[in-house]
Design brief:
With 400 residues, the protein is an alpha/beta fold. 42% of the residues lie in helices and 12% in strands. The longest helix is centred in the first third of the chain and has 31 residues. It starts with 5 loop residues before the first helix and ends in a 5-residue tail after the last helix.
Length: 400
């Protein structure tokens, strides 16, 4: 944001938050009237425009809930949200700012529960990666049940990450206090505040290292295998043809965190040795376009630093692609670890793992691809996630 605009933006936040505080008695009355009129209440999914946000809302709709995903703006990767405020105002920043607070007041009146991330919901905050105190206070005042879902950067701190051992997300990081929350005191402060307002904090994979006391059985990255009448994720299994280059596809959103340099170096060394292998990078293109490139892969490389797979790996397995990824603690991090066919690679074994897959391991790739597709179909569909969500709701006394 332009430096000269920051004070104006901060003043706008303070002004509108004060306005909401003053208006809170009227919002209470409006909420009561909404209940008396017996209008159907919503379940709102909001916060950072993470790719899976809309998919979780769609999964909740399978439970018969009026669920909606709302974001202030979307990334270039996807705009598949029910309501994108910036898009609704045709890119008008001032209009989007105003509409954000109008939308929030509507949520205060009509929502029965709200799903957010650990570093924020719908409202902007004066401090980076800190939840708006007014937003949390209104949820508590209006008895709107809040559920928190983590996505990594909102809870990942430098001290805990480094303590996991090498390699890790911080090993090659050049964006300290930018890419993730990083600061342990700030993360602890967020969690203390959320403990007073949130019904539950849902975590999974390596993120459980940063969320003590969280509910870790939901594995909340659902995928819609029926999208585009099933065409989006039609599996294309790799060919067992050692005469062709092993086509490795990698799609890093943050190169330093994913071990991209290690991958590039390994592939170059192997090519110099005469190994039939090639690397295709997928960066900063829409998800639909990226999927087309993924279909051409023999192997998908997720990462070799963080210690847990991303949504990218789930999409790749849905397409029938073998996935290489460093999983630090398979038994703790993976859903049904005995059935998960991810090829667990490490920075120290990466080159040898690729050499094996390009030669004698080439014949194993079609079967691994099929196992991956079956794994996703069994555990990561919207239907499978909605069933796990229903169980969690029952445990927390929530009616769909």
């Amino acid at each position: 944001m332009n430096q000269c605009k920051k004070p104006i933006y901060a003043a706008g936040i303070i002004g509108f938050e004060l306005f909401i505080v003053v208006l809170s008695p009227l919002l209470v009355v409006a909420r009561i009237l909404y209940t008396l009129l017996n209008w159907e209440r919503m379940s709102v999914w909001t916060g950072a425009p993470i790719l899976t946000l809309s998919r979780k809302a769609a999964s909740e709709r399978l439970l018969g809930v009026r669920a909606i995903s709302i974001v202030r703006q979307s990334y270039y990767i996807t705009n598949d949200f029910d309501f994108d405020i910036l898009r609704a105002t045709r890119g008008n920043a001032i209009g989007a700012f105003l509409l954000t607070y109008i939308t929030f007041m509507w949520i205060c009146i009509a929502a029965k529960r709200v799903h957010t991330f650990a570093d924020g919901g719908l409202l902007p905050s004066l401090k980076r990666r800190e939840f708006s105190l007014v937003e949390m206070a209104m949820y508590k005042l209006l008895r709107i049940r809040q559920f928190v879902w983590v996505y990594g950067a909102d809870v990942r701190t430098r001290s805990k990450t480094v303590a996991l051992g090498e390699p890790n997300c911080c090993t090659n990081c050049t964006e300290i206090n930018v890419a993730c929350i990083c600061d342990q005191a700030k993360a602890d402060s967020n969690m203390r505040r959320l403990s007073h307002t949130a019904i539950a904090i849902f975590s999974m994979g390596d993120m459980i290292e940063y969320t003590p006391g969280s509910y870790n059985q939901l594995y909340f990255w659902p995928l819609d295998l029926t999208a585009d009448s099933g065409a989006r994720y039609i599996p294309v299994y790799p060919a067992n043809d050692r005469a062709l280059n092993l086509r490795v596809v990698h799609a890093p959103n943050h190169r330093a965190f994913k071990g991209t340099l290690h991958l590039e170096t390994a592939v170059k060394k192997l090519r110099d040795e005469g190994v039939k292998i090639e690397l295709i990078m997928v960066e900063k293109i829409p998800n639909a376009q990226a999927l087309t490139i993924y279909r051409s892969a023999d192997v998908i490389f997720d990462q070799c630093m963080i210690g847990f797979h991303g949504y990218f790996a789930i999409e790749a397995m849905a397409l029938g692609k073998p996935v290489m990824c460093f999983i630090r603690k398979p038994e703790d991090y993976l859903l049904a670890p005995d059935e998960c066919p991810i090829i667990n690679t490490h920075v120290t074994t990466l080159m040898e793992d690729l050499r094996y897959l390009a030669h004698e391991g080439r014949s194993t790739l079609p079967a691994i691809g099929r196992r991956g597709r079956e794994y996703v179909a069994r555990y990561y569909t919207e239907q499978a996630f909605s069933q796990r969500l229903a169980i969690a709701y029952r445990e927390y006394g929530v009616t769909a």
